[in-house]
Amino acid sequence: MAIIVHKYGGTSVGTAEKIKNVACRVKKTRDQGDEVLVIVSAMGHTTDELIELMNKVSENPDPREYDMLVSTGEQVSAALLAMALQSIGCPAVSLTGGQAGVITEDIYKKARIKEIKLDRIKKELKAGKVAVITGFQGVDSKGDIITIGRGGSDTSAVAIAAALNAKVCEIYTDVDGVYTTDPRIVPEAKKLKSISYEEMLELASLGAQVLHPRSIECASIYGMVIHLRSSLNESEGTYIKEATKMEKKEAVRGIALDENIAKIGILKVPDKPGTASKIFGALADEKINVDMIIQSIHSQGTQADMAFTVDTPDLKKAVEIAKRVAKELGAAEVISDPDVAKVSLVGIGMVSQPGTASKMFKALSESKINIQMISTSEIKISCVVKFEEGKKAVQVLHKAFGLDKISQ
Amino acid sequence: MAIIVHKYGGTSVGTAEKIKNVACRVKKTRDQGDEVLVIVSAMGHTTDELIELMNKVSENPDPREYDMLVSTGEQVSAALLAMALQSIGCPAVSLTGGQAGVITEDIYKKARIKEIKLDRIKKELKAGKVAVITGFQGVDSKGDIITIGRGGSDTSAVAIAAALNAKVCEIYTDVDGVYTTDPRIVPEAKKLKSISYEEMLELASLGAQVLHPRSIECASIYGMVIHLRSSLNESEGTYIKEATKMEKKEAVRGIALDENIAKIGILKVPDKPGTASKIFGALADEKINVDMIIQSIHSQGTQADMAFTVDTPDLKKAVEIAKRVAKELGAAEVISDPDVAKVSLVGIGMVSQPGTASKMFKALSESKINIQMISTSEIKISCVVKFEEGKKAVQVLHKAFGLDKISQ
Questions:
Q1: Chain B residues whose beta carbon lies within 8 Å of the beta carbon of residue A66
Q2: pLDDT of A283-296, one tens digit each?
Q3: B67 and B47 in contact (C-beta within 8 Å)?
Q4: ipTM of the complex
Q5: Which residues 243-302 in chain B show a CB within 8 A of chain A?
Q6: pTM of the model
Q7: Residue in A closest to B84 by C-alpha
Q8: Ordered domains of chain B (ranges, CATH)
């Protein structure tokens, strides 16, 4: 008898009808003889509605009270799912994060899980019950309710699955797996049977928002197999797990497009030690996430141009900071461009196949797509191109690397 | 520095705007130098909405899951009120029943409070914060969330106030106090400045639904003064406390009308020992609350007629049971009448003024109102009359006992 963890997101438990469907699916798994735990998110737009109410009573809500407020959403879905399970003859019990023994750091709104005390969960499983646990939350050392930040329910599911040594953590969502690229851009995109943690992490960080990066990190640390699949059908989705030998042979496994970035350049920065730390320190202080950074020596040799990308919503603030720091440093000018997109190739085999980058650049240049910035990591190559050329770049590369022909 | 407990019901915290008003009122009390605790109910129709959802997923929901579900309503209002307080510069913290140390019996849906562990509440008060506590709930020995039944938030407020030795427990509602009778029936009805626990208990049991009987019982045990007042204005309401000498002189303090009753008669029951226990035992088994019971010896001497009242919603089921038991006992017939109402005089001074009952009967007979059943207790006299004559009976009695002339 193995332990299987299911996780259902807000859309999958959005209505009473959907909750009943989830109950049937859970019961089916349990009827196959396994012990089942279910992690649930808040129903549909519950969290947004609570936040709307919150904004009406307070302009700057206390993070502690925020957690107290929004954590109710998961509690409602957990109780309803437990009831739905019982009503089809499947013994079940709902547990809050605290009751399930999920202990977090003492940080409101974005704590990490420190420990999972399994006594209660084990007791309920032993009593033959399906444990339905509120995702996204735990309690701190004071017993206060703590939420664990965006994508928290995925992380809850993986952490609980890992603590229990579950066979698999099945994450149900409204897509049916991970594709070689966004099928809306490339209709020939193929669903991957499996993908490694590292590759999934890169794809998730690049905006493939099916799984939160933290949950993948957590799964990777504990070697927990995630099965990402659709709550709308029975078909197999994509397994996220240790890379197989086969996968390591493939240079490129997936292509991601991030259209939500903007480019900033600081020109003619006097080339002195500490310059970069001044610029990026100031941005970090304001919690602005900087992605690609390129420093190019200027023709004169004593000056450098710095270019970097930020998320589009941060652009205005980032430019403001860049102008202030540029003045302090005696740089010539700050330029910015919101009309860019980032195309990335991801593949764990890239590390052993050095020709990938040049093949990428060649394919783009043959399609007359100009590359504005390049950054590479062991398993990723990203290029910044004009916004209008982003989708075309993905299509060109998907074909060039034969991703439409693979049968994985 | 005294401790003052405020309690706000669902209507008083029904919208973001109303929550902000409550925050202002709480802050005002605190600015006067007292320590303040606030007990809140769920916003407006939240509980009903949750129950509606529940009924869609389960026909016979588990009481444990019911508690898990509905307790979220109070948690939402507590968090929002804490935020609203903070946003007007009043330090505050919300606490669930469990966090506030409210320990209940291990019975879902209708537990009694066993104990209040004050550590956390005291710590928060010491830190200068207003503690906003979810009403209606606590935790049991397993840490499961338990609700404490209908009217639970009033009881939570009184119990917490008593445990903290608060100066007063102010219960805010949409009426501005306790009246000599329902002002919709008698426009001359007067607001009482104060009323004793016993009288309030009788009035509450008689359908004056401003305060739940359990909360009054609890206040009476601990001698906690309740100030029942309106959340819509600043005027003084009614104090519920030990009877004063003055009050003991008044025979009649209030008149209640309960239109939600029905009468059942079992005719010609063979007069044998155990008959009554058979009838009322069977009704109790089905959780049907029986109020007035009258057994009259039938003309023949070996048979008796039994009459009793039940709440109207229970009538159908009660008749069914009565018919079954009547058959077993060999009784002649079961009759029922939903068109009745109960008029009651309540007053702690009644015990020392024996003329009250006859004065009541006389006033009713002079107005040609026929009395169908009578029952008396030390501080109450109730008469069942025709439904159509209920309101008139109240008006007649209000005048006969001079309640429109008192100035309390």
A1: 79, 83
A2: 988 888 888 888 87
A3: no
A4: 0.81
A5: none
A6: 0.83
A7: A57
A8: 3-174 (3.40.1160.10)
